[in-house]
């Protein structure tokens, strides 16, 4: 009998079941009689069935070593040099034969289990996992889990969606773009796989040729190493994949079987009906110099980070419903099979998957581990659960988890009162016309007759509530309430109301600083301003009351308050360093659903993710503020993630033989932790008001720091890791058994036991420092010449660090690695997290650093 793992759901938020793995040879011909005999008595109605992902014995394509007669090894095709020959017909034939073999064995198991009963198989997984998605009742799932050849079962769960200025802000224009021959060549022939809500193929950011911003784009020639296809549908016609968009598919089987998919609403094609996918794709690899025009206003020229990279689209998220893990895994599986270089995932679960075992054994992370084995760098959003600790929704050390930073661009505005008082506000809106003052009218004072209980007059959503004569040519004063945040009130409808009444514009006040802190500026076509601070709102309302006369019944009879609104459409760039965005999820990383701390630093790195201009779909209906628009300026770690994916593509284009771990290390160890004045970067924290509290950022806020791509191009040394190193990490992780690691990954735990913190990561994180810990790290010289390095460091509080050696010479060729040992000793018990930093300074100018995070110390 094969080993099996019971995966019960635990905890309030858990819709997740952990998975375990894969072994070398598929044994599906073995006895299935016991389970099959009980199947007929366990069938239930369709409404009792749910979708499960089932992992069975046998290597997926990326692991298969050719051990079966007549089948050629496929794992070797995923070496660092696989692109050189992976497109050849004999390689394709070998992979297809093995895939057919896996599918046949999967079907044999299902047919034997269900006997004569019908069943619904949604997906076969071949490349990253050997398994399938199938509909089962709870009883059937319990029986199938006990069947010989089945490794584990996991119930489906949902995942959710977690630029004009950032290329300049990140220094691309005079940096790597210039080195690669300008934006016309930056990222040439790299393929970024975007698992998201699809793409709008008609958007100019994805045009195959044509001039934008004075630049002439060259046509995109076919790439022989890419094996993907382009789905065709009525709304996604032939020609949508034009070379820039190199492939496009959609994955919706789980959403359909779960009853959440409506083809007329979500589109059964790669077309983006949400906007999120087009936004992330254009941020990573949109064309250079595309004009951003919203409501006739020019906001600048947009560019993706890797403007000549190709985009491969894998639609697995859908507007209004998000996505389901069987669809996401199928998308990732196909992306690796197609030959992407970088996999960008601006998605994640609501909370950590888990039950009784490790977070790192959830199905998505295990699939992504095999993606890394196939030489694909995986970048994932950290989540938007900040500023609360342990809010990460990206967990594993083989994935680059991205935090969101606030860059230096803002759109400030002012309103000037007739007494010369100037109040600050925000709104991407034009100024009031002419150099003159306009009268104001409070929404509640302009109400005509009885109000409709369905509407709140102060939200200014319904023009029929107001007297046009009172609003005409005046500024309507409304309230930015929580209805704009959690309800259905929109700024667009305020615009419609003002226009219908002939108003001159509008002013938004707030009754709460918390509500004001939630406001994100959006493009508006008429004069407008939002006063996001309660005190400023009170000044304006006091001014209004002072100059407004009312009769004995309290009805206004004279409106004397006059003001003018400034121009809010002009961006201001302060040059300040990034700050960790308030919403960005924070560490420490968690090892299980019980939220025990892990010996892994998360997040890993920070990139701009606040108010990012990028492509949008005019079909999108999820974000009411941008309905019908082709551009949107939105925030989230979803926006930060494609920045890192695009930068990683630039880095890999220059260093095609670097492993995913080396690429990640180069970005992390060269990230900025100080601003231009040498002061620590700051993180936004809750303040109780509209302005966030700023505190020095820690590695649990920003990981290794803010991305510095020009420094990452030439790190000097990297902390490299291979698939076997991650196997050792899993074997050393709390709650993980050796047979589980072997079953899922095909790897064998090392005879000499190690600890999870020994993984060669560009950081040191200890969840529980007890006594003295000795931690090894190996650095690899990726420069073309020998160099001498000196190590300096700062100790975490209540910890003493010793390093051996503190100086070393590193060569090239067989002398290109150096082992370093770090000894950490706690000096006293402390319940507080403490942080330190280790700096490597080379004699030829290379400087890299790694953070130290020590928590739960015990003597």
UniProtKB/TrEMBL annotation:
Compartment list: Secreted
Positions of the Inhibitor I9 domain: 90-160
InterPro entries xrefs: Peptidase_S8/S53_dom, Peptidase_S8/S53_dom_sf, Peptidase_S8_Asp-AS, Peptidase_S8_Ser-AS, Peptidase_S8_subtilisin-rel, Peptidases_S8_3, S8pro/Inhibitor_I9, S8pro/Inhibitor_I9_sf
Pfam families per record: fn3_6, Inhibitor_I9, Peptidase_S8
Keyword terms of this UniProt record: Glycoprotein, Hydrolase, Membrane, Protease, Serine protease, Transmembrane, Transmembrane helix
Domain Peptidase S8/S53, chain residue ranges per copy: 187-676
Protein name: Subtilisin-like protease
Record family assignment: Belongs to the peptidase S8 family.
The keyword Transferase is annotated on this UniProt entry: no
Origin organism lineage: Eukaryota, Viridiplantae, Streptophyta, Embryophyta, Bryophyta
Segments crossing the lipid bilayer: 7-32
Active-site residue numbers: 196, 276, 638
Subtilisin-like protease fibronectin type-III domain segment(s): 758-854
């Amino acid at each position: 009998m094969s080993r099996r793992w019971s995966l019960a759901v635990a905890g309030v938020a858990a819709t997740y079941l952990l998975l375990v793995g894969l072994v070398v040879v598929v044994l599906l011909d073995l006895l299935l009689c016991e389970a099959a005999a009980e199947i007929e008595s366990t069938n239930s109605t369709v409404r009792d069935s749910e979708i499960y992902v089932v992992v069975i014995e046998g290597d997926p394509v990326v692991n298969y070593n050719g051990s079966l007669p007549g089948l050629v090894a496929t794992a070797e095709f995923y070496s660092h040099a696989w692109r050189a020959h992976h497109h050849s017909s004999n390689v394709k034939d070998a992979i297809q034969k093995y895939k057919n073999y896996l599918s046949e064995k999967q079907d044999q198991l299902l047919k034997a289990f269900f006997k004569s009963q019908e069943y619904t198989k949604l997906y076969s997984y071949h490349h990253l996992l050997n398994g399938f998605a199938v509909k089962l009742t709870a009883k059937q799932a319990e029986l199938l889990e006990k069947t010989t050849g089945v490794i584990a079962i996991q119930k489906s769960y949902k995942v959710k969606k977690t630029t004009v200025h950032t290329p300049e802000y990140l220094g691309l224009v005079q940096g790597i773009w210039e080195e690669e021959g300008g934006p016309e060549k930056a990222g040439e022939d790299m393929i970024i796989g975007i698992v998201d809500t699809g793409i709008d193929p008609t958007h100019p950011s994805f045009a195959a040729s044509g001039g934008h911003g004075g630049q002439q784009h060259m046509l995109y020639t076919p790439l022989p190493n890419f094996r993907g296809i382009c789905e065709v549908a009525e709304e996604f016609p032939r020609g949508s994949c034009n070379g820039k968009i190199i492939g496009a598919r959609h994955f919706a089987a789980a959403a359909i079987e779960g009853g959440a998919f409506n083809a007329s609403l979500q589109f059964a094609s790669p077309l983006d009906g949400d906007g999120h996918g087009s936004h992330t794709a254009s941020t990573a690899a949109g064309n250079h110099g595309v004009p951003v025009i919203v409501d006739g206003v020019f906001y600048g020229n947009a560019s993706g980070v890797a403007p000549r990279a190709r985009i491969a689209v894998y639609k697995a998220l859908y507007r209004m419903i998000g996505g389901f893990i069987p669809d996401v895994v199928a998308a990732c599986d196909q992306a690796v099979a197609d030959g992407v270089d970088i996999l960008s995932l601006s998605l994640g679960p609501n909370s950590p998957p888990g039950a009784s075992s490790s977070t790192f054994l959830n199905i998505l992370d295990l699939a992504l581990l095999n993606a890394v084995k196939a030489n694909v760098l995986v970048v994932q959003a950290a989540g938007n659960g900040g500023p609360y600790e342990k809010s990460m929704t990206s967990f594993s050390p083989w994935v680059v988890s991205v935090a969101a930073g606030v860059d230096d661009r803002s759109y400030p505005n002012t309103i000037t009162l007739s007494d010369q008082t100037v109040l600050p506000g925000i709104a991407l809106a034009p100024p009031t016309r002419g150099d003159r003052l306009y009268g104001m009218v409070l929404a509640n004072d302009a109400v005509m007759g009885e109000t409709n209980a369905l509407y709140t007059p102060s939200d200014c959503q319904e023009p029929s509530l107001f007297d046009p004569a009172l609003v005409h040519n005046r500024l309507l004063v409304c309230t930015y309430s929580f209805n704009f945040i959690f309800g259905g009130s929109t700024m667009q409808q305020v615009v419609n109301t003002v226009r219908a009444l002939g108003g001159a514009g509008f002013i938004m006040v707030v009754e709460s600083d918390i509500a004001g802190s939630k406001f994100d500026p959006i493009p508006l076509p008429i004069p407008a301003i939002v006063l996001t601070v309660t005190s400023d709102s009170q000044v304006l309302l006091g001014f209004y009351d002072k100059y407004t006369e009312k009769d004995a019944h309290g009805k206004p009879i004279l409106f004397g308050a006059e003001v003018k609104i400034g121009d809010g459409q002009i961006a201001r760039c302060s040059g300040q360093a990034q700050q960790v965005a308030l919403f960005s999820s924070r560490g420490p990383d968690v090892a299980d659903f019980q939220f025990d701390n892990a010996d892994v630093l998360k997040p890993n790195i920070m990139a701009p993710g606040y108010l990012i201009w990028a492509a949008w779909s005019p079909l999108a209906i999820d974000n009411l503020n941008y309905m019908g628009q082709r551009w949107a300026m939105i925030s989230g770690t979803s926006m930060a993630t494609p920045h890192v994916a695009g930068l990683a593509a630039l880095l890999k284009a220059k260093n095609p033989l670097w492993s995913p771990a080396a690429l990640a290390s180069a970005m992390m160890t060269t990230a900025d932790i100080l601003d231009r004045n040498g002061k620590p970067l700051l993180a936004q924290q809750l303040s109780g008001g509209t302005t966030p509290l700023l505190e020095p950022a820690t590695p649990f806020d920003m990981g290794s720091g803010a991305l510095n791509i020009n420094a990452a191009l030439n790190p000097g040394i990297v902390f490299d890791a291979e698939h076997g190193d991650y196997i050792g990490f899993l074997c050393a992780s709390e709650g993980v058994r050796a047979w589980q690691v072997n079953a899922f990954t095909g790897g064998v735990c090392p005879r000499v036991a190690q600890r999870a913190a020994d993984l060669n990561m560009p950081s040191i994180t200890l969840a529980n420092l007890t006594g003295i810990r000795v931690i090894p790290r190996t650095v690899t010289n990726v420069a073309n010449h020998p160099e001498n390095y000196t190590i300096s460091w700062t100790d975490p509080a209540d910890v003493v660090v010793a390093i051996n050696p503190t100086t070393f010479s590193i060569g090239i060729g067989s002398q290109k690695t150096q082992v370093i040992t770090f000894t950490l000793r706690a000096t006293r018990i402390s319940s507080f997290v403490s942080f330190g930093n280790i700096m490597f300074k080379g004699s030829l100018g290379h400087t890299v650093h790694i953070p130290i995070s020590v928590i739960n110390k015990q003597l």
